[in-house]
Amino acid sequence: MMDFDILAEPRNQADKQALLQEVNESPFIGQMTLHELDHHIERKSILFFYEEDTLSAFSAWIPFAKDWVELGPFFTREAYRGAGLGKRTVISAIDANRALGRNMYGVTKNDVMKHIFTKHGLAETPLFKLPQPVLQYLVVKTNPARIVRGLQKLKPNEKVAHYIQIKDNSAIEAEHGSSRS
Ligand SMILES: CC(C)(COP(=O)(O)OP(=O)(O)OC[C@H]1O[C@@H](n2cnc3c(N)ncnc32)[C@H](O)[C@@H]1OP(=O)(O)O)[C@@H](O)C(=O)NCCC(=O)NCCS
User: Fold this and answer.
1) Could you tell me if 69 and 33 are in contact, meaning their C-beta atoms sit under 8 angstroms apart?
2) Is any ligand 1 atom within 6 A of the Cβ of residue 83?
3) Which residue, judged by its Cα, is nearest atom 9 of ligand 1?
4) Could you report the per-residue pLDDT of 96-116, keeping only the tens digit for each?
5) Domains of the chain, first to last
């Protein structure tokens, strides 16, 4: 397994531009603007994976409501796919947010991502069974332009699936209990 440096921001501007271009050509991921990428960097909700000088992947997340986070987007550059890097990016995002006691939500139409989410403890959940904070979040973030962009990229046989992982309250209570003692 290759060794990766995990950084909170890209090493330079050119890496950022090249990454955005590849992301926006990918059929599986929503458009990402420079502004969105910079916003992730500012609020420290993104990790960049470097193999030596090459930016190979990133994982990001979006906090919403109280104690909730949307995991994603995740992106492994094509040359690095299928070697376990996507899994590592997801585990890093889960670990960062679990440490903050957050419930997790993920949505994807990519079968590889579905496999990784399931393998790492997220449960596929029908839209109508999603918890209230997630449904409210989806209503707010779903604007007409986003729906059109999503439908343009969706192929007839693809199915969007939703995943959640509710935080382990007992572990969190135990942590709080031990910090009080
Ligand atoms: C999704 C993505 C991040 C995965 O990255 P990756 O580095 O190739 O992933 P990994 O190599 O870590 O994991 C692949 C896993 O999926 C499995 N897999 C591969 N093809 C699969 C398929 N068609 N269906 C289901 N599982 C599949 C592999 O067996 C492996 O699982 P395992 O470790 O249990 O054997 C990458 O394909 C990507 O960037 N895609 C474009 C953007 C995207 O779709 N992002 C997700 C939207 S948020």
Assistant:
1) no
2) yes
3) 86
4) 999 999 999 999 999 999 999
5) 5-180 (3.40.630.30)
pLDDT tens for each residue of 164-178: 999 865 444 444 444
Share of the chain above pLDDT 90, in %: 72
- The model carries a pTM of 0.87
Through-space distance between the first and last CA atoms of the chain, rounded to whole angstroms: 42
Range 110-142 burial, b when 16+ CB lie within 10 A, else e: beebbebbeebebeebeeeebeeebeebbeeee
How many angstroms does the Cα of residue 75 sit away from the middle of ligand 1? 10
User: Can you tell me which atom of ligand 1 is nearest the CA of 88?
Assistant: 12
- Measure 122 CA to ligand 1 centroid, in angstroms: 15
Report H helices in the chain.
13-25, 34-42, 85-98, 111-119, 132-141, 144-153, 169-180
